[in-house]
From TrEMBL:
PANTHER family named among the record's database cross-references: HEPARAN SULFATE GLUCOSAMINE 3-O-SULFOTRANSFERASE 1, HEPARAN SULFATE SULFOTRANSFERASE
Positions of disulphide bridges: 260-269
Signal peptide: 1-20
Record's protein name: Sulfotransferase
GO cellular component terms attached to this protein's record: Golgi lumen
Example GO biological process: heparan sulfate proteoglycan biosynthetic process
Subcellular location(s) of the protein: Golgi apparatus lumen
Enzyme class: transferase
Single annotated GO MF: [heparan sulfate]-glucosamine 3-sulfotransferase activity
Domain Sulfotransferase: 59-298
Lineage of origin: Eukaryota, Metazoa, Chordata, Craniata, Vertebrata
Keyword vocabulary terms for this entry: Disulfide bond, Glycoprotein, Golgi apparatus, Signal, Transferase
Length: 311
């Protein structure tokens, strides 16, 4: 028995040492079988030592983005469900080469311990806008369920800037005003990365090459902020979870200005870095931003077959 266990450990180690190549058409056709073997071996090896018979599982659901769309809020709300086990940190497996090259064994090791009936979820907002990620996720599990949370593209740009601005402030480093990023030679600076992240139709086209809309659920991030319970109910249905999250799990914190969570008598709110006030922007520049996203938004609505209350 000891020899068999040692052999299994060595096989898993070999799987982890084989670097995963960048995704190219047809390059990862054997990956689903590799996933099944890795998951089975990891489960067998950990079975005796895991608390309460739990084990680490590859995620059955991934929150793929978008950055500053409300991914942390969505994950925290989803974690209220007893049948959800969520990875604590952003894993960046599919978009960071130094992680992806370590293989699925490494990815599995980043997952929380969970019971067989629980759904393992991880979230990495950068997945949505990373070109290589859709094919890599599909190669791992073509039946995976994907959650995408989006906000008004203009508001998302401002949140994107605000986060980076405060990161610099905390390090006592100067940072240019948002106008310096948004405007170049009197025109909107379309090379600003935050603008590109808000071109949802461009990134969605890439995901739709590998996944049908049936495998994706788009959460309205603006509605989640205003009235979270109905949006979470939709997520529960999409993930085929029993309806366990209730309206009583949410309460509006007037001091913070957004909803917080109440779980088993314990109240918790998102980190103070969430929900920060955006910088004041000249109304004319804001109108330029809205105009810039008007056509891209229409293309996105056509792609997904629904509309959103965006400018």
């Amino acid at each position: 028995m000891a020899a068999l266990l040692l052999g299994a450990v060595m096989l898993v180690a070999q799987l982890q040492l084989v670097p995963s190549r960048p995704a190219v058409p047809g390059a990862e056709l054997g990956q689903p079988e590799l996933v099944r073997k890795a998951a089975t071996l990891q489960g067998e090896i950990r079975e005796g030592a895991a608390p309460n018979g739990s084990a680490q599982q590859l995620p059955q659901t991934i929150i793929i983005g978008v950055r500053k769309g409300g991914t942390r809020a969505l994950l925290e709300m989803l974690s209220l469900h007893p049948d959800v086990a969520a990875a604590e940190n952003e894993v960046h497996f599919f978009d960071w080469e130094e992680h992806y090259s370590q293989g699925l064994g490494w990815y599995l090791s980043q997952m929380p311990f969970s019971s067989p009936h629980q759904l393992t979820v991880e979230k990495t907002p950068a997945y949505f806008t990373s070109p290589k990620v859709p094919e890599r996720v599909h190669s791992m599990n073509p039946s995976i369920r994907l959650l995408l949370i989006l906000r008004d593209p203009s508001e998302r740009v401002l949140s994107d800037y605000t986060q980076v601005f405060y990161n610099h402030v905390q390090k006592h480093k100067p940072y240019p005003s948002i106008e310096e990023f948004l405007v170049r030679d009197g025109r909107l600076n379309v090379d600003y990365k935050a603008l590109n992240r808000s071109l949802y139709h461009v990134h969605m086209q890439n995901w739709l090459r590998f996944f049908s809309l049936r495998r994706m659920h788009i959460v309205d991030g603006d509605r989640l902020i205003r009235d979270p319970f109905p949006e979470i109910q939709k997520v529960e249905r999409f993930l085929r979870l029993s309806p366990q999250i209730n309206a009583s799990n949410f309460y509006f914190n007037k001091t913070k200005g957004f909803y917080c969570l109440r779980d088993s008598g314990r109240d918790r709110c998102l980190h103070e870095s969430k929900g920060r006030a955006h910088p004041q922007v000249d109304p004319k520049l804001l109108n330029k931003l809205h105009e810039y996203f008007h056509e891209p938004n229409k293309k996105f609505f056509e792609l997904v077959g629904r509309t959103f209350d965006w400018h």
